Amino acid sequence: MADSSARYVVAVDGGGSKTDAVLLNLEGELIAHARRGGSSPQVEGLAESVETVDSAVQAVLAGIDPSALVQVSLYLSGLDLPQEIEDYRAAVAGLPWAGSNLVLDNDLFALLRAGSDAPNAVAIVVGTGMNAIGLRADGETYRFTALGGISGDWGGGGSLGSDVLWHAARAEDGRGPQTLLVDALLAATGASSVAEVTEDIHFGRRAYGSLSSLSPLMMATAAAGDAVAISVVKRQADEIVAYARASIGRLDMAGEAVQVVIGGGVARSRDPLLLARTRAGLAETAARAELVVVDAPPVLGAGLLALADAGADAAVLAQARVALGAVRP
């Protein structure tokens, strides 16, 4: 039976593919963890996102009275604009755990906190898609609109996977250069031709979203020396640098020590070409920039932020970092 005098925080990190919720006590101990599917309101829709988050929160509460919560912090992909945050707050307002102690913001803040305590930092997620935030020591931030192609976005597993098909299709029909991506795609999908994959997507026999799972093919084919794949991996590295350069420049941090934290599945692959080109680009952007690849789950950062907002001291945060580090990314 739950201790009726105990007090807790709930933290949620929600991305395009998964949602993690954790319940911690004020001593920094991990009491419960639940995982659900993706909860980005831009991808899933507002109602389904709220349903997913609520399911995860209810799972970690498991009978604990929401009145015992001193802090609830939700960090979600797709909360990029003030209007999106306001809409989400209104959508969860009637839920028992969503009180006046609710913090809502983009999941990049959780990624940043999971990977860095530096006063000047940039967090870049290279997961299914891409987004970034910059944070300066005085608390000033720089954000991106992050609405896909209409806001100039490219990169992440979705883009890399769709580019596997794009380049393979052009190689097969003669419009583009020959590439090992054709054989890699056919081996991965079991299709007899690239045209078959394209037609399957067109007629709904394959989900377009499944293309993101093909992104490792791009890295592997580049590692095999394929010129087309190499050019795409280089473009991905250049896009990471572009986010960092914009954030650092807009916050006037070019002369400062800055940690550039990258996370998400594509970043965690630690592809040698990707990281080498990214580091080289960062060195040209800001001489004191340091690249940090985050292996820790972003919910670690969400939990630390929630505890800090609840008044936790350094010892409690250290305890929580160890406990949350055990959560599988």
Automatic annotation (TrEMBL):
<dbReference type="Pfam" id="PF01869">
    <property type="entry name" value="BcrAD_BadFG"/>
</dbReference>
<dbReference type="InterPro" id="IPR052519">
    <property type="entry name" value="Euk-type_GlcNAc_Kinase"/>
</dbReference>
<dbReference type="InterPro" id="IPR043129">
    <property type="entry name" value="ATPase_NBD"/>
</dbReference>
<feature type="domain" description="ATPase BadF/BadG/BcrA/BcrD type">
    <location>
        <begin position="12"/>
        <end position="271"/>
    </location>
</feature>
<keyword id="KW-0418">Kinase</keyword>
<dbReference type="GO" id="GO:0016301">
    <property type="term" value="F:kinase activity"/>
</dbReference>
<keyword id="KW-0808">Transferase</keyword>
<protein>
    <submittedName>
        <fullName>N-acetylglucosamine kinase</fullName>
    </submittedName>
</protein>
<dbReference type="InterPro" id="IPR002731">
    <property type="entry name" value="ATPase_BadF"/>
</dbReference>
